[in-house]
Every structure is written in C-alpha cells, then in structure tokens.
Structure prediction request, 248 residues.
Amino acid sequence: MTFDAHPRSSLIVALDFDSISTAVKFAKQAADLVGMFKVGNQLFTSAGPEAVRQIAQLGTGIFLDLKFHDIPNTVAAAVLASAGMPGVQLVNVHALGGTAMMRAAAQAVSAGVPMGADRTRLLAVTVLTSMDQKAIREVGIGGPVNVRAVKLAKLAQKAGVDGVVASVQEAKAIRKACGREFLIVTPGVRPKDKGAGTKTDDQARTATPREAIKAGADFIVVGRPILAASDPRAAAQEIVDEIAAAKS
Ligand code: C5P
Prediction:
C-alpha cells in the first residue's frame, strides 16, 4: 500500500450504517476529506459485498473491518475473499484467535493478492477499545490491559501480520515493541468537545486525534463523532487539521 503523506490519508471514517444508499450518500460527501472508508460488521451484514463494490467506485481505499475469529481454515478462506474485493486495502482478524489462525490469515492475504506496495494488509485486533480492565478480567484474561495488548501485538507480528488495531493508550508501547514498519490503527478516537464534554459512546479507552498521532498511530478510525455531527464535513476537516498539526 502506498500511503501519500497528506494528513487526510491517516483518517479512516467508519461507515456504520445499515443501508448501501445511506453509506454511499455519506461517503460521496466526505470522500475528498478522508484516506479510507471502513466497512464493518453493521454495513457488511446488512448489505454484503455490494456495499464494498459501490464504495470502491468512489476511488477511496477500504478497510474491511470484519474482525474474523474462527478456526484457521475458515479464517484463511474469509481473508482471501476479503482481500479479493475491489479497493480493500486493510482486512483484519482478532489476535485472540491465536498464532495458527493469524499465520493462516497472513498466508492467505499474501497468496490471494499480488505482492508489492499495493497489496492488501492484514491487521489483528489486540483488545477491543470498548473493553476496560474489568471487562477483560471478566472474560478470564489476566494482567493489565496495556501489557496484554502489547503481547498480542508481538504475537501478531511473529505470525506474519502487518499491523494491529489497538487503543491509543497502547500505541506507543506497541510502536516501541514492533518497530516503525508495523501498522498501528487506533479507533476510540474522540476529538475534544468544545461544549459539555466529550461523548465517548460505548468506547472505554478513548483519546484525541492529536494524542493518537503523537502516540505513533498510522491511521485513526472515527465513526460517530463524524457521522453524528451536525456538519460531518466540518467535523472531518477539523480532525484532518488536528492530524496535520500533530504531524508538523
Ligand atoms: O463511532 P466510533 O468512532 O466509536 O467507531 C469506531 C469504529 O471502529 C466502529 O466501527 C468499531 O467497530 C471499530 N473498532 C473499534 N475498536 C476496535 C476495532 C474496531 O471501535 N478495537
């Protein structure tokens, strides 16, 4: 994947809608302000691969965020199918699926698409940004969440995965542990609110776009702060400006 240096390249906007028509209408309005659109479980389950085809026609890259977590053979087939769809630059699995699953996914992504700078990249989700310390303890995962996320990132890298989806809180430690080339994508990003305070929705570990870039994120994923804004273009532009300032 060849990323241009423009600050907007670092912004991935989550198209968390139920219908293709709403998603495409929104994407058309914002396509010149974003680096990629994210098609996730909500849109893909409602509208299927056709959603990816139509978004791809806008010429913006796509992060197909389906977070596979299944037996290696099934995940490899799903990753292969995902990477073959038009415009898909990023696909992902859950690191908690383990080494064999991640290795199968990494092999599938490099087998199915041409090698080189433009090949689809595989990411692993470390710990969902909606989960805090209590939530991960409840599912039987011990130790501090930030330590766990770094360990999962290292495991993913060892399995041949190109990068991770992680919270901003862990990005710095992951960058240090996994090096400059390893991709870091951070959701849970909330621009600072000028009014009554920042709305976090269901995200537990949030940070501002500036904090994300300063922590070493290559991409930030933003959904509701843009989708639900009264002026989504202005909200996206503000985030791009904040990315630009953080990079300068
Ligand atoms: O609306 P919001 O900005 O919270 O959207 C974040 C997007 O990033 C959602 O589409 C969500 O599925 C996704 N995501 C996340 N945490 C992860 C991986 C993906 O929030 N660890």
